[in-house]
Design brief:
Layout: H1 14-31, E1 36-39, E2 42-45, H2 53-66, H3 72-80, H4 91-111, H5 113-116, H6 128-138, E3 146-148, E4 151-153, H7 155-176, H8 194-200, H9 215-222, H10 230-254, H11 291-297, H12 304-338, H13 346-351, H14 359-379, H15 386-410, H16 419-427, H17 432-461, H18 466-494
Antiparallel strand pairs: 1-2, 3-4
Helix pairs in contact: 1-2, 2-17, 2-18, 3-17, 4-14, 4-17, 4-18, 10-12, 12-15, 15-17, 16-17
Length: 501
Amino acid sequence: MFLSMRSPAISFPSLIVQLLVFPIGCFWAKAVSRKVFSIFGVRWTFNTGPFTIKEHTVVTLMANVSISCVYSADALLAIQGRSFYDTSFGWGFQLLFAFSSQLIGISLAGMFRRFLVWPSSMIWPGQFANTTLFYALHGEKQPLRDETNGWTIPPFRWFLYVMIGSFTWYWVPGVLWPGLSVFAFVTWIKPNDVALNQLFGGYTGLSLIPLTFDWTYVSAYLQNPLLAPVDALCNVIVGLIIFVIIPTIGISYAGWWYSDYLSINTVSLFDNVQGTYNVTRILGPDFTFDLKKYASYSPVFLAPTFAISHGLSFAALASAVVHMVIFHGKEILYRLRTARNQESDVFMEMIRRYPDAPDWWYGMLFVFSISLGLMSVLIYPSQLPWWAFFVSNLLAFVFVIPTCMIYAVTNVFLTLHVLSPLLAGFIIPGRPIGLVIFKIFSAITLAQAQTFSGDLKMAHYMKIPPRTTFACQVATSIWACFVQTAVLNWTLRNVEGVCEA
């Protein structure tokens, strides 16, 4: 949470926890006493024996929930930040807001697991790296030495070599020559040529020859493309060329949308004198939109790629729903009827040996979290009416199945980051804080459902008891909300100049 507020932000993937906890767990199993204690008839011990693969998985599941900053913190930062709205509704609103936005995502993932987790066709490629690493570290069913082209090497030694090599190489693009991160070598030919930089520039251009020697630049925006099916990657490339690159070039060099005066590729908003759009100049009392100030100041101007991305976002979401109805409508109805009795694969057969987390657990969690969210928007001046709160959650509810099914098969995720604020702008016009909260309860709730569905699949692959998975996800989400809300408030009060640069 603390490092997410710096520029550039620093994030720690759960893979770090997955790696570090292994030697810690093994050391604990060997060094700590196994003495058994008894308190009121309950027997327990600090050391239950060897550090198992399932214990390792549960720790990683909890890290997945808590290691990234709570999504609602972004909205709280926008509301409370001195460079933004600079207002605070107090700890009560912050905690209610954080709890509800986190727990609604968990409940949606659990309620729809019969469609998104149990079917063998829902493979979730993004989980393959984690599950493979678990088995590699714990050595289950692994040979002591792997043989390739006549030479052998122990798995741990190979892992150590790769880790040292990747660590060493990162200093080259990260410190010694940052130009390798975005290797736009074509622009070296004529650095001051505008057209050349528009077409081949790496930051504000189209990067028509996209080269990088820094893996973090790839994984930061595309997750891990090595895990996505080849046909999905080809589909993305073809779509990028047809729907983004070609239209952007046409719009820019035809002079449409005032593109002659704007960068061809940027997410910044501009006013009519090419300056960064100053939102404070169009706000009235209580942070409401003032139409007269807007008319006297300037309309908003978008770069061609930014405008096209908004249009494509609508098209992608609409096509996802249509695709699910046409190609998977019968399957969805079948899964709805059969529930846990649907045809099973080897993973489903194994997980059936454990008591399931009943649907009513997730249903009660959904009702509880919705209640917390409703309290946050009614008790505090959130600018979000009660009916708009339900509309925001309904929007996430509608898109859970189509977007998660696409994510589970292709490792390509769709979001509501464009649709939800636009819809909020229509139904609650002139209320920017209400729009931010609406977006959290729609776009971010959907993103949480996608993340937690993937975690449920990892638990499914690793045969973690469903009730254990439910408990660790809920408990860790609640704990993360407390910790990260406290860190957010401490940072805003004690770190001078935070988020002002």
